[in-house]
């Protein structure tokens, strides 16, 4: 006999002890990890034309049946792919006399059901909605019953295909959510709608079926079972709906920062005796749109920090699980998000439950993507969505369709069905005082967007194709949104890459080219660099920019960007760190930071530290008490009690945690600047003076076993060799942009040092270039130059090095993720070690997801690099601030749209100016000030304004070591 599940916690409800509870008997499994085999026949495609078995719930493509379809594809087989299911089951004899409903939580797309050969009811059309049939009269209690379901992947109703099957996402077929029976007393509660307001008032509509009921009694409970307030009741009149009302003094309100929940039990009484009890988990809160003002939760103006999320997992398609829902909500919370939009259909109930309990505001959406349901079909599906989801406090807004897929006839249905009267919006439309335009440029202007009069929150912005968007551009957008009184924030597109396992192609992961590679996370939730940028930009603790100088007294000016939480409720800790030198062991990113590639990643703890460790030894640690700093933009100060020797350390880290212990963010501030660190590392003295020889084409310099050659014709480094062999660093320095106008090299002996200097013509962007070779074999390069123009794409110096010889890198600077000009946040200063990879962000690697962090790209706040190679390592040290390290050129997609910025020539660069990156739908220059080209005014080439780069090279093949105190 299948297990029966009572639909409430009876131990909490003394009144309900004599009442019957709704009993649940699953006919299928409950999620992607717990399935039940049903008999199955697929009409066309793989493994078709024969009866076999299939796990339920599932999407049949992932089980080896039918054909994979992406929504844009034109496929002549559409409409022909049909699955037939059969399953035998028994129900208890004592269900005789009960009302029994057969419930499908979701099936794609047209579903016809028969029980014991008889139709259970009319065909259901629409994939993402819970539908049910009363099969009481069709069942044989105590005997074997046969369920038959015919599921067509595409609908016979073209409006359903327009709304669901022609979208920009993967299309699947099959029974993809659980199927179960619910048994209720003949006289029972069929629906409960609760409206619990921020003022503590509660009203509920209780819908009943059957005859003879005389009263409904309600009781509120805390989640630990304590009664909250007194019983409240109402007589059942002739109508099938009974209105109950009560009020709870000092109700603990639901917000995303304080997701307080209650349970409310409703007991139906007949002849004075309880006959049926139903309970719901609720939260007290009020959501409203105030015209030309903003979105208000519990009377407080709020801004959405949100993301769009598909129900998706690579090995199971749209079939998910409670564990996956909890993981995804925790990942969003770890990015300091407070909201999520359902793209583009209602989600699993366990996802909404996770949002209720963990704290995310939800925009729940009727399916529609450029097309919409017809009114009869849409009305039925809208009613089904509301009945399933209406009591989740996390749902604060209903969305009627996406990007033109709006049926205006469904707005009154939402108004009529929703007791809470939540706001209704149309995604990418001006509607009821809201403007949700998608992919708006930074300043849309001309009487619209933030220059208009409506409350603005784009339900999609910064389309995160590959490594573009998401974090790139977000800081500019968010500072504008935060400051603008009519902005209510916005929602990024989207949460994770839609990489599906192709069982028809050897298990490769497929995003259908650039269609599904839009995630902040990889398909198995691997973290891209934008994950940490979003985490910092959307931190509710905002640090005003400041620099650490000898006069620093430990004081930081901070702003409270929470909506409901005083900063004195948060926890702050600090750490002073001495960073290791080249060659010392340092941590690479852990498997958790790189992102799990297997489903066992779902077991990760919800409050696991989400920022990679930057290495180093913590020599001073402590906590600090935050003063009362009120929410919604109030400024105050935090002060670190620094020890007397704090200036002897390299970095100050400060971590903020939510009241529940979850990390908000860890910030880093450099104490030791590059010039000081360089002086610790460089070695100038050697056993004998450096020596120079020359040929017609080369200057050759040797010192302490290191030999270098410089071309007299080009002025570039031609070769490097030490006692162990060749180090293939060549062809530099080359300007990233601008005319060189090289005229020649000169050489001179400067004591024990050899100096090589270049001469340039009047058109050259170079002011000077000098190589100095020291007796130790160390080499210094000093270059002064002007960028190409007042505004320019790139500025810096490049060298060539064969990528095939690289195994990895260790460097001191910001990491471990790369940066773009418009995505500088989300890193920490530290010493990082990273193995070589050729990851192209968002592109799948056969059966595996991408490997993060990527190796190739730009890294900010550069101090030093040791390049780890198949031959000999070498180290480069920079003694100036504001320099970027460039490691090779990332591999970009063949169709990158705006996400393949220009890179300088060569493979290793040291840059003063780097490029931004755009999104799938926007050029970087339209995404805010950070997306513009670099600008530099040189005052007519006044040498005092030239950009200067000083680099030290250690070609000895040994790792540079810091000097002891006595050597400094």
Automatic annotation (TrEMBL):
Residues 289-504 form the Glycoside hydrolase family 2 catalytic domain. Keywords: Calcium, Glycosidase, Hydrolase, Signal. It catalyses: Hydrolysis of terminal non-reducing beta-D-galactose residues in beta-D-galactosides. Residues 578-625 are annotated as: Disordered. This is beta-galactosidase. GO terms for biological process: lactose catabolic process. It comes from Hymenobacter aquaticus. Monomer. PANTHER family: BETA-GALACTOSIDASE (PTHR46323). The keyword Calcium applies. Residues 187-285 form the Glycoside hydrolase family 2 immunoglobulin-like beta-sandwich domain. It comes from the Bacteria. Belongs to the glycosyl hydrolase 2 family. Residues 52-185 form the Glycosyl hydrolases family 2 sugar binding domain. GO terms for cellular component: beta-galactosidase complex. It is an enzyme of class 3 (hydrolase). Transmembrane segments: none annotated. One of its GO terms (molecular function) is carbohydrate binding. Residues 1-19 form the signal peptide. Its EC number is 3.2.1.23. Its cofactor is Ca(2+). InterPro entries: Bact_Beta-galactosidase, Beta-gal/glucu_dom_sf, Gal_mutarotase_sf_dom, Galactose-bd-like_sf, GH, GH-type_carb-bd, Glyco_hydro_2, Glyco_hydro_2_cat.
């Amino acid at each position: 006999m299948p297990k029966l599940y009572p639909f409430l916690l009876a131990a909490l409800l003394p009144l309900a002890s004599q009442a019957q509870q709704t009993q649940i008997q699953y006919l299928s499994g409950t999620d992607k990890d717990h399935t039940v085999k049903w008999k199955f026949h697929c009409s066309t495609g793989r493994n078709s034309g024969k009866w076999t078995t299939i796990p339920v719930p599932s999407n049949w493509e992932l089980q080896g049946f039918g054909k994979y379809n992406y929504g844009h594809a034109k496929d002549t087989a559409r409409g022909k792919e049909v699955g037939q299911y059969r399953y035998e089951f028994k129900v208890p004899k004592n269900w005789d006399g009960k009302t029994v409903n057969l419930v499908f939580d979701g099936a794609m797309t047209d579903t016809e059901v028969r029980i014991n050969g008889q139709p259970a009811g009319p065909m259901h059309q629409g994939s993402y909605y819970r539908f049910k049939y009363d099969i009481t009269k069709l069942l044989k209690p105590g005997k074997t019953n046969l369920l038959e379901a015919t599921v067509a992947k595409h609908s016979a109703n073209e409006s359903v295909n327009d709304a669901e099957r022609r979208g920009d996402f993967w299309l699947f077929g099959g029974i993809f959510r659980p199927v179960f029976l619910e048994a209720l007393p003949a006289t029972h509660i069929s629906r409960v709608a609760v409206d619990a307001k921020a003022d503590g008032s509660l009203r509920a509509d209780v819908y009943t079926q059957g005859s003879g009921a005389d009263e409904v009694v309600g009781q509120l409970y805390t989640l630990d079972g304590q009664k909250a307030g007194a019983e409240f009741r109402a007589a059942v009149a002739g109508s099938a709906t009974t209105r109950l009302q009560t009020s709870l003094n000092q109700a603990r309100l639901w917000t995303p920062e304080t997701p307080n929940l209650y349970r409310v039990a409703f007991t139906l009484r007949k002849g004075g005796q309880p006959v049926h009890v139903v309970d719901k988990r609720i939260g007290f809160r009020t959501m409203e749109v105030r015209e030309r003002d903003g979105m208000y939760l519990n009377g407080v103006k709020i801004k959405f920090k949100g993301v769009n999320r598909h129900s998706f997992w690579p090995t199971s398609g749209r079939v998910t699980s409670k564990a996956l829902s909890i993981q995804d909500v925790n990942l969003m919370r770890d990015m300091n998000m407070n909201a999520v939009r359902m793209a583009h259909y209602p989600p699993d109930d366990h996802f909404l439950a996770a949002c209720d309990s963990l704290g995310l505001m939800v925009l729940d959406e009727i399916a529609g993507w450029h097309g919409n349901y017809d009114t009869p079909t849409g009305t039925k599906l809208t009613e089904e969505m509301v009945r399933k989801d209406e009591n989740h406090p996390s749902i604060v807004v209903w969305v009627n369709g996406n990007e033109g897929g709006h049926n205006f006839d469904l707005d009154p249905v939402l108004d009529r069905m929703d007791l809470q009267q939540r706001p209704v919006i149309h995604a990418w439309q001006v509607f009821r005082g809201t403007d949700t335009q998608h992919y708006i440029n930074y300043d849309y202007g001309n009487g619209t967007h933030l220059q208009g009069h409506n409350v603005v929150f784009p339900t999609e912005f910064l389309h995160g194709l590959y490594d573009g968007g998401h974090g790139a551009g977000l800081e500019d957008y968010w500072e504008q949104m935060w400051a603008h009184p009519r902005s209510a924030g916005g929602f990024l597109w989207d949460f994770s890459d839609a990489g599906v396992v192709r069982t028809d192609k050897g298990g490769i992961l497929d995003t259908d080219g650039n269609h599904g590679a839009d995630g902040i996370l990889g398909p198995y939730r691997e973290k891209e660099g934008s994950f940490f940028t979003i985490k910092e930009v959307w931190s509710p603790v905002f640090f005003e920019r400041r620099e650490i100088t000898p006069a620093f007294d430990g004081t930081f000016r901070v702003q409270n960007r929470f909506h409901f939480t005083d900063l004195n409720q948060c926890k702050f800790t600090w750490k002073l760190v001495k960073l290791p030198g080249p060659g010392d062991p340092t941590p690479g990113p852990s498997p958790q930071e790189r992102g799990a590639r297997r489903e066992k990643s779902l077991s990760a703890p919800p409050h696991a530290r989400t920022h990679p460790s930057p290495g180093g030894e913590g020599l001073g640690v402590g906590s600090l008490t935050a003063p009362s700093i009120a929410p919604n933009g109030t400024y105050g100060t935090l002060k670190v009690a620094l020890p007397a020797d704090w200036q002897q350390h390299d970095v100050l880290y400060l971590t903020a945690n939510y009241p529940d212990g979850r990390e908000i963010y860890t910030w880093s501030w450099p104490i030791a600047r590059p010039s000081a660190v360089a002086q610790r590392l460089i070695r100038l003295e050697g056993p004998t003076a450096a020596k120079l020889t020359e040929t017609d084409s080369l200057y050759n310099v040797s010192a302490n076993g290191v030999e270098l050659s410089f071309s007299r014709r080009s002025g570039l480094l031609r070769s490097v060799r030490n006692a162990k062999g060749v180090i293939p660093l060549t062809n530099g320095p080359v300007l990233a942009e601008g005319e060189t106008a090289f005229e020649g090299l000169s050489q001179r002996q400067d004591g024990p040092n050899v100096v090589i200097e270049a001469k340039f013509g009047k058109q050259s962007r170079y002011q000077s270039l000098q190589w100095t070779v020291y007796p130790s074999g160390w080499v210094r390069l000093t270059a002064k130059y002007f960028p190409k123009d007042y505004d320019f794409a790139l500025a810096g110096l490049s060298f060539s090095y064969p990528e095939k010889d690289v195994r990895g890198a260790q460097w001191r600077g910001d990491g471990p993720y790369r940066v773009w000009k418009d995505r500088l946040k989300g890193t920490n200063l530290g010493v990082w070690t990273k193995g070589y990879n050729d990851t192209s962000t968002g592109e799948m690697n056969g059966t595996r997801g991408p490997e993060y962090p990527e190796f190739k790209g730009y890294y900010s706040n550069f101090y030093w690099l040791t390049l780890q190679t198949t031959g000999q390592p070498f180290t480069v040290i920079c003694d100036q601030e504001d320099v970027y390290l460039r490691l090779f050129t990332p591999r970009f997609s063949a169709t990158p749209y705006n996400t393949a910025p220009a890179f300088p020539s060569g493979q290793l660069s040291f840059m003063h100016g780097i490029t931004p990156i755009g999104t799938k739908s926007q050029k970087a220059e339209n995404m805010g000030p950070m997306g513009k080209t670099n600008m530099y005014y040189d005052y007519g080439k006044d040498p005092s304004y030239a950009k200067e780069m000083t680099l030290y090279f250690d070609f000895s093949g040994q790792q540079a070591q810091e000097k002891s105190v006595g050597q400094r």
